[in-house]
Every structure is written in C-alpha cells, then in structure tokens.
Amino acid sequence: MTAQGRQFLAVIGDEDSVTGLLLAGIGHVTDGPEAQRNFLVVDSKTETSTIEKAFNDFTKERQDIAIVLINQHIAERIRASVDSFAEPFPAVLEIPSKDHPYDPEKDSVLKRVRRLFGE
C-alpha cells in the first residue's frame, strides 16, 4: 500500500471538532450519485455500528484518504478496530476534543511505540 493518490484527511468526531476541521478546509465530497463525505459527526445518538462503518470505509475502502483523525473518546467506542488497524496508510491519529481531554495511555499509536521500545 502506498501513499500515491492519498490526498485527503478524514475525520470522525464531535460536532465542534468536525466543524473546526471543515472550516480549516478539509471537507470533501466525492462526485457521483453515491457521493461520499470524508467526515462523520458523532453525537450521543450515533450508533456504534455507524462509527465502525465510517472507520472501515475511511481505512479500508477509500484509497484517497491519507490520515484519519478521530476523537479519542469516540475511538474508545470502537477500540478493537482502532487498535487492530496496523496498515501504514491511512495513518490513524487520536485527537482530543473540547470536552474530553487526551489520555496518552489510551492512544493506540503510543501503545505500539512503547511496545517497539520494550516499555
């Protein structure tokens, strides 16, 4: 798997995080009758299966996504999928949100780095 053709960020997050990133210019909608967005707004009513589907679409189906940003508290809802994703592209990064501080002990990337260094 290469970085060739991967030109977009994707985001799975709460309304504030997604809105901020969309205002920064990351938003993209594919052409065609089955248009796909590169973001998912998650709230308390969002089903875990919907989050899981978006994560799988961004990481396995779409070949134009280079980085997936996901709020850490949302990643906790699909922790098994986030932790088991080990491909180099797209990179999956957990980010804090306004209401949920970042906890490095839960971050899947930092866990892998610690294992690599034998910690």
Automatic annotation (TrEMBL):
Principal subcellular localisation of the protein: membrane
Keywords recorded for this protein, A-Z: Hydrogen ion transport, Ion transport, Membrane, Transport, Vacuole
Transmembrane parts of this sequence: none
One function term, GO molecular function aspect: proton-transporting ATPase activity, rotational mechanism
Name of a matching Pfam family: ATP-synt_F
Record function comment: Subunit of the V1 complex of vacuolar(H+)-ATPase (V-ATPase), a multisubunit enzyme composed of a peripheral complex (V1) that hydrolyzes ATP and a membrane integral complex (V0) that translocates protons. V-ATPase is responsible for acidifying and maintaining the pH of intracellular compartments.
Subunit composition and interactions: V-ATPase is a heteromultimeric enzyme made up of two complexes: the ATP-hydrolytic V1 complex and the proton translocation V0 complex. V-ATPase is a heteromultimeric enzyme composed of a peripheral catalytic V1 complex (components A to H) attached to an integral membrane V0 proton pore complex (components: a, c, c', c'', d, e, f and VOA1).
Protein name: V-type proton ATPase subunit F
Organism name: Aspergillus ruber (strain CBS 135680)
